[in-house]
């Protein structure tokens, strides 16, 4: 069976078991290793990608359910998503990254949050991170970085939600 979808803006055709988890297609066949496979059980958020603009866990999403949809990974977001780029720069600036395993998923979850909630406070940022576990527990610096991004978006005139 064949499944065709958009992957970072390009057509991706997959001929194989439709129950193949998206994470395996990305990492093992497309060699997009930015998306991390950590728990593979839906608990950690490290494998988060965007499907139709919504954060989705690639370890739980079978490729067969992606027919006709648009998938963005961290590789695509780094190129095309302004909020993801802002976050990546801020994480580097505040030296938030430790082992780095959680960060691709964090960026994919938080870029949508940043886009849609430009006036969020620190508490709202923490809530937005609930599905993304950092085993190195550098949460406060991650929140600092997101707060910097919100301030930047604010001064650039982001819309209120
Ligand atoms: S690897 Fe998918 S949620 Fe942990
Ligand atoms: S930096 Fe190591 S898991 Fe987050």
UniProtKB/TrEMBL annotation:
It holds the Pfam family Fer2_2. Its cofactor is [2Fe-2S] cluster; [3Fe-4S] cluster. Coiled coil: none annotated. Gene3D superfamilies: 3.10.20.30, [2Fe-2S]-binding domain. Belongs to the succinate dehydrogenase/fumarate reductase iron-sulfur protein family. GO terms for molecular function: 2 iron, 2 sulfur cluster binding; electron transfer activity; metal ion binding; succinate dehydrogenase (quinone) activity. Its EC number is 1.3.5.1. This is succinate dehydrogenase.
């Amino acid at each position: 069976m064949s499944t065709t979808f958009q992957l970072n803006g390009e057509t991706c055709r997959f001929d194989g078991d439709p129950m193949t988890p998206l994470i395996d297609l990305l990492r093992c066949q497309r060699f997009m290793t930015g998306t991390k496979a950590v728990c593979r059980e839906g608990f950690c958020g490290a494998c988060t990608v965007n499907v139709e603009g919504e954060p989705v866990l690639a370890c739980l999403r079978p490729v067969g359910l992606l027919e006709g949809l648009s998938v963005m990974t961290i590789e695509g977001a780094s190129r095309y998503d302004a909020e993801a780029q802002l976050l990546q720069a801020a994480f580097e600036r505040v030296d938030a990254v430790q082992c780095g395993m959680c960060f691709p998923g964090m960026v994919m979850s938080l870029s949508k949050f940043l886009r849609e909630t430009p006036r969020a406070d620190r508490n709202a940022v923490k809530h937005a991170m609930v599905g993304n576990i950092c085993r190195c527990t550098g949460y406060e610096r991650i929140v600092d970085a997101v707060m910097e991004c919100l301030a930047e978006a604010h001064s650039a005139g982001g819309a209120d939600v």
